[in-house]
Amino acid sequence: MSKLSNIWVFSDIASRLPEIIAAGVALGEKVSAFVIGTEADINRAYSFGATHVYCLGDKDSQKITEDYSNTIAKVISSSTDTNTLMLLAANKRCKALASKLGVQLQAGVVNDVTEINIDNGICAKHMAYGGLAIAEEKINSPIAIMTLSSGVFEAQVADTNNTGEAVNVAFVEPKTPIKCIERRAKQGESVDLGKAKRVIGVGSGIGSKDNLQIASELSEIIGAELGCSRPIAETEKWMDRERYIGVSGVMLKPEIYLALGISGQIQHMVGALGSQTIFAVNKDKNAPIFQYVDYGIVGDINKVMPALINALKA
């Protein structure tokens, strides 16, 4: 596969940057990372494969991610690189930044990209129609911008001996800046289901919030993270939004996925089909999920879960 001369990368979430840099290494001859933070953050970018770092300054509690669009656009537009690509994490802030950069750089933008091909121009694949189809877009503008779904590229092992070229970039104030007056820690625990090796997903068949405790016990026994279908997170609000698996939630790539009381609508299964092995328990033998699984049990999950726990403990 041919490579582009330069790939620009950015993520406001530190845990996603190594994966974004890995994409840059795979697609570009050099990787130019925009970094907000200290010298340690710059060195971390080098360790994962960045060859050039553009330091946007220390973290400022009053700035939001989108405030850096003018600064980033100025750097990219002044570069001599042509037919280039910028990759960002596919989260809300980076998508907002991508949209602003798309206007400022007159660049085509594709969100939630699941595959990139540069053999015949810059092309990207992403889900369409709620996960019912995969769309492929070819970006014909000189600069292409994409937000990359989690798990598309695997981060390289950090090498602290890696070095590169660093440039301090002066902040360009937006014409109408949004000032962050206060930041509060989000309630609830942090989880990254996209990196989990084993995942248990619970759906409406769980019956009640109290039964989540049994699912949690089962997940601890097999060393799995606990996820859920959309109704559990957004309608019932029994679990955090970060644990919702599906087309507009988390895209899984675990070794094992166990779906408990999940009917298996396509919007959910799109987020689970990257699993190596899928198990499911549902009392409805005609549930759509049985079309996708490797192993299935027709039964009441509130009877099957205790039986599984007892068998595993034994």
From TrEMBL:
Q: How is the cofactor bound?
A: Binds 1 FAD per dimer.
Name the record gives this protein:
Electron transfer flavoprotein subunit alpha
Kinase among keywords: no
* Pfam families, alphabetized: ETF (PF01012), ETF_alpha (PF00766)
- The signal sequence is none
Query: What range(s) does the Electron transfer flavoprotein alpha/beta-subunit N-terminal domain occupy?
Result: 7-184
* HAMAP family membership: FixB (MF_01056)
Question: What keywords would UniProt list here?
Answer: Electron transport, FAD, Flavoprotein, Transport
GO MF assignments = electron transfer activity; flavin adenine dinucleotide binding
- Which cofactors, if any, are listed as required? FAD
Task: For this entry, list what GO says about its biological process.
Answer: carnitine metabolic process; fatty acid beta-oxidation using acyl-CoA dehydrogenase
Which annotated residues bind FAD? S229, R230, G261, I262, S263, G264, Q265, I266, Q267, H268, N282, D300, I301
Mind telling me which PROSITE patterns this protein's record contains? Answer: ETF_ALPHA
* InterPro entries associated with the record: DHS-like_NAD/FAD-binding_dom, ETF_a/b_N, ETF_a/FixB, ETF_asu_C, ETF_asu_C_CS, FixB, Rossmann-like_a/b/a_fold
Family the UniProt entry places it in: Belongs to the ETF alpha-subunit/FixB family.
